[in-house]
Amino acid sequence: MLKELLSLFRSDDAIARMGEDFSTMLGLASELAVRAGQVFFGETSKENEREEIAKRDRKINKLERQIRKQVIVHLTINADSGDVPYSLLLMGIVKDVERLGDYAKNLAEIHDEGGGPVPDDENAAELRQIRQIVEETFGAVNAVFTASDSDAAIELIKGGRDVGRRCDALITKVAGSSYDAATTTSMVLATRYYKRFESHLLNVLSGIVMPLHKLNYFDEDLLDTDDPLDESVFDAEVDEPEDAADDG
User: 227: which of 37, 137, 172, 218 is 20 to 30 A away, CA to CA?
Assistant: First the structure.
């Protein structure tokens, strides 16, 4: 699916601008996630960073609206029928990137909303490891998207689903801990936001490996195989929807 979209990005001026804007959105979202993590873990000045994060989140929102407008104008005036599925794909995944900016802003605001300091224990160490994986995924998604690298996308999806399981397990541990209310709030919310980061990144990656009608869903056969990507998997019909990336 994404290979065809990228070929349109490179061959048509209007769609090329959409592709450039989308890549810019991904880059901004990645930057925001890193900066928000630095605020949450106390690695940088909170006040200045929160202001910058809010500014960049507004820019992401503006780019989302711009891309959606570009898609509508293109489909209304210029596009042939072959552009429709790829334009719909872009409309779908651009919302996921917009949500990444929102969650970055939420992460940076945890301590101002009643959250306590991050403890120095094994739960915090696990959260830092999750953070590192999520930030690495952020850093990889733009390149994978640009290259339409299906094999790399599948590996990131597999790793991302593992992050989701680790986040769920960590929340259970925090719930059973002796933390005070403020610290529990910080740890649960941060873990939840990192899970949401990963979920929305996986939704973007689903646009590379899944057909349009299965956007945000993944075939288990596709994820479980160690063989090179088999395009025939994309055409298989199923009776029930597969596991969604954005599973809450």
Answer: 137
